[in-house]
Amino acid sequence: MRKIGSGREAEPPSLLRRVMAIIEVKNLTRKFGDLVAVDDVSFTVEEGEIFGFLGPNGAGKTTTINVLCTLLRPTSGEAWLNGYHVVRDQAKVRRSIGLVFQEPSLDDQLTAEENLNFHAILYDVPAGARAKRMEKVLKMVELYDRRKDSIKTFSGGMKRRLEIARGLMHYPRVLFLDEPTLGLDPQTRNLIWEYILQLREREGITIFLTTQYMGEAEHADRIAIIDYGKIVALDTPDNLRGSVGGDIITVKTTDDRLAAQEISQRFGFQVSEGQNGLHFEVQKGEEFIPRLVSESSVEILSVNLRRPTLDDVFLKFTGRRIRDEELSAKDQWKERMKSRHRGRGHGRGHP
Amino acid sequence: MHNLKAIYIIWYREVLRYLRNRSRLVGSFGMPILFLFIFGSGLSPAMGGLTQGIASASPMAPKGADIDFVMFIFPGIIGMNVLMGSMMSGISIVWDREFGFLKEILVAPINRTAVAIGKTLGGSTTGVIQGLLLLVLAPLIGVSISAGMVVKLVPLLFLISFSITSLGVLIAARMKSTEGFQMIMQFILMPMIFLSGALFPMRDLPTWMNFLVKVNPVTYAIDPLRKIIFEAQGLPEFVLEMLPQAGLGVTLFGHAVTMQEDIAIIALFGAVMIALAVWMFNIQD
User: Fold this and answer.
1) Helix or strand holding residue A304 (H, E)
2) A73 contacts on B by Cβ (under 8 Å)
């Protein structure tokens, strides 16, 4: 009988296993018929890192995860996880990873404990270690008091937390979180993030997450921005923001058309017209505002200056924004259905 | 070893879910009660004694040695209940897919074969329970139960249930949504039940129908059930021997099919189904 966990310390040298980053992806492509969901993507993830995939719905985030966790075969290209090839060495890859899917995946007719136990046996966690491990992961997500309760009585946030706990039951090296907070309210979202950050500190685990929320991507050590199946940028959040250039100034005037012309002619900035007025990038924006106000011939109604955000980074690399309000009608419907599935609320398990 | 444990836990979940689902337990009595007490009692007077025509030809025919319609359909109704329960269990893979739980199973470091077999064994177990539960109705329709009969029924019900659950798993292996459920019930399960001799004697049937009944594997599942239950009713030997002539047993090319042959046919069907189910389930996207 093979024991999970023991494989890590006393593994015989294998030809299949390569010394490399915890996740290594080379020229990965996955097509569904004519649709190219993931298009020639390459990246590496280092051990212990929080790595984020940021992109709108349908950008190829989940498809990439599904390939990395062996649920989908790549059309071309290769990927290794924990040194194991995702096609040739599936069982070993699966033992190395924990997964929290985008859609809930608990059996709601079972209790929390039964769900974890089911998982532990599927992953061959030794019987002796099972109870202790269960206690540890349940306490970590503050659901230990609710362990005997049916999942039916759990709120959306509690289910998510339990799924995170379940993903950790078998001591994975990498935890995949596919949109871990989609459809949850902001308070629950923060709580989930508390656990994720704690996890990295305590367990030293590598976390691979996907998100379409800018604020969430900020927590990652490195972010890959993915759009139409391609990685358009990959760096730390700070460096990405730095790449945008200067501060972002939004101006509202009585005649935006004329003002835009004036600003681009006189100061040489690229001006874009948005719903809230004119946007442009300026180095040292706070020094520029007085100049603008005194030199403009058009009456200025308001001026707004802000530092670049990941949203601006996304805009720069893709020419579009991915704000919640700009989700298509279909996406919004999908999200609503999801949040309904997951329920609202966020109870911490201590009423 | 690991895969055996996986089969066990998948089986265990299936049984636990079944036992926990009170409405499914209670609901499984609905159809049988309708069939036995309404349909059965309604048709019984019109049908008369099913073995009478032949029995009266025999000079030794004693009174009360006949089989009435309700008693006739009882084994068929048990079979029908097992079939429905098994099919639902097999198809429940689609529910698991829809509610996301299947992903949790598919991404685990276990064989897909173990998943299909665990699921099928789970469905078989619930099928046996669902079939045996109906025995509580037996006294109400004058069917007597003996320990020997139950002992013979259990493995047979398991075999039947295993075959049909495998068929369900096979259908569910590539099915993406629950929308096809209704269609499967209407176009696969119900025809299999209606064409199995579960609900009417197989005597003087139109040629086309006779053909469909004989090629239907479920026919060979209902037949041994009927044999076991009738044998336990203390009917005279000659009544049991006439069953095939009266259309209450299966005849194939003029030969009355024996219990062993029934079991061999249903076992073969089950083996083919589970092999196909495992194969389909192993195809990866």
Assistant:
1) strand A300-306
2) 284-285
Mean pLDDT, chain B, rounded, equals: 87
Using the Cβ of B2 and the Cβ atoms of chain A, whether some distance falls under 8 Å is answered with yes
3-state DSSP assignment of residue B48: coil
Evaluate whether A206 touches A175 at the Cβ level (below 8 Å). yes
Query: Cβ contacts (< 8 Å) between A110 and chain B: which residues?
Result: 13, 16-17
pLDDT tens for residues B7-30?
999 999 999 999 998 888 888 888
A-chain residues within 8 Å CB-CB of B110?
A: 122
Burial of residue A31 (number of CB atoms within 10 Å: 0-12, 13-18, 19+): middle
B284 with A73: Cβ contact below 8 A? yes
Could A72 and B104 be called an inter-chain contact, meaning their C-beta atoms sit closer than 8 Å? Answer: no
**Nearest beta carbon to residue A94 from set B6, B20, B109:** B109
A92 contacts in B (CB within 8 Å)? 109
Q: Has residue A57 got a pLDDT over 70?
A: yes
Of B1, B13, B99, the CB nearest to A118: B13
Residues of B in contact with A99 (CB under 8 A): 103-104, 107
| B187 interfacial to chain A (CB closer than 8 Å) | no
CB B237 within 8 A of CB B87: no
CA distance B132 to chain A (A): 24
Range from A152-166, A333-347, B250-264 carrying the lowest mean pLDDT: A333-347
d(CA A212, CA A52): 10
Q: Which of B256, B162, B250, B107 lies closest to A91, judged by CA?
A: B107
**Residue A192 burial (CB count, 10 A):** 21
Q: What is the predicted pLDDT for the residue at B272?
A: 97
* A73 inside 8 A of chain B by CB: yes
Beta-carbon pairs below 8 A across chains A and B: 71
> Is pLDDT of B146 > 80?
yes
- Are B108 and A107 inside 8 Å of each other by CB? no
Q: How far apart are CA A180 and CA A157, in angstroms?
A: 10
* Strands of the A272-274 sheet, one edge to the other: A272-274, A277-282, A247-253, A300-306
pLDDT greater than 80 at residue B284: no
- b/e map A6-26, b = 16+ CB within 10 Å: eeeeeeeeeeebeeebbbbbe
CA distances from A105 to A147, A342, B97, B107 (A): 17, 10, 9, 12
**Interval B162-183: pLDDT, tens:** 999 999 999 998 888 888 877 8
Window 5-34 of B: residues touching A by CB (8 A cutoff) are 5-6, 8-9, 13, 16-17, 20-21
Residue B257, pLDDT score? 86
Residues A98-124, mean pLDDT to the nearest whole number: 93
Cα A219 from Cα A50, distance rounded (Å) = 8
Listed in sequence order, the residues at least 6 apart from A283 whose beta carbon sits closer than 8 Å to its beta carbon are: A245, A246, A247
Global pTM reads 0.80
Q: By C-alpha distance, which of A174, A155, A189 is closest to A100?
A: A174
Output DSSP code: residue A81. E
Taking an 8 Å cut-off on Cβ atoms, the answer to whether A121 and B5 are in contact is yes
Residue-level pLDDT at A262: 86
